[in-house]
Design a protein that fits this description.
Length: 182
């Protein structure tokens, strides 16, 4: 039931807000390409979270290809700790306020692999398809750099998780100030 509700909410995000905003920082005929790198805590089960993504944006719609990893704690000597990786394709909306504050809401499909090593046993791997959700804030320092913080969730049958991460965005985030049409 909860998964159905989240899928319905994700569909509403794309259909219900199709023309909700005209973004003056992004010209209608231009694509904006940028990447980001984020680090965070992996929750109770995992020690660290790392995320790398590539984004293509046109106006206030974006597509993100994201790779992330929930790994054992950095200074853990226990090889039996689980590790989870995922590759996600996320579609979403981007909202910019006061030329430097940007909020992104997105969801998409994720391919998950969970791996656990045991010293005297075989390594087991589980794979699944899940729903990836993100809420991301970016403070755009300039047209080419920003500081990000995000809440990422992944709902799947192997091991669902939610994490908070902080990082940097770099690339073509918005128009240069002298290139904006007023």
């Amino acid at each position: 039931m909860k998964l159905s509700l989240l899928i319905a909410l994700a569909c509403f995000l794309f259909i219900g807000t199709a023309d909700a905003q005209t973004d003056s920082l992004h010209l209608p005929k231009r694509f904006y390409i940028y990447g980001d790198l984020e680090f965070g805590g992996g929750g109770a089960t995992y020690g660290s979270y790392t995320q790398v993504s590539l984004v293509v944006q046109k106006r206030n719609n974006y597509v993100r290809l994201k790779a992330s990893e929930n790994a054992r704690p950095l200074f853990s000597w226990n090889d039996e700790e689980p590790m989870m990786t995922d590759l996600s394709l996320i579609l979403g909306k981007s909202y910019t306020v006061f030329t430097c504050h940007n909020l992104k809401l997105g969801s998409g499909v994720a391919f998950i692999k969970k791996e656990k090593r045991a010293p005297l046993e075989e390594t087991y791997k589980k794979r699944a398809v899940g729903l990836s959700l993100e809420l991301k804030y970016c403070y755009m320092i300039d047209w080419s750099a920003g500081i990000t913080c995000s809440l990422n969730s992944n709902l799947n049958k192997v091991d669902s998780y939610s994490v908070f991460a902080v990082g940097v965005a770099f690339g073509f985030l918005r128009e240069k100030k002298n290139g904006l049409k007023h």
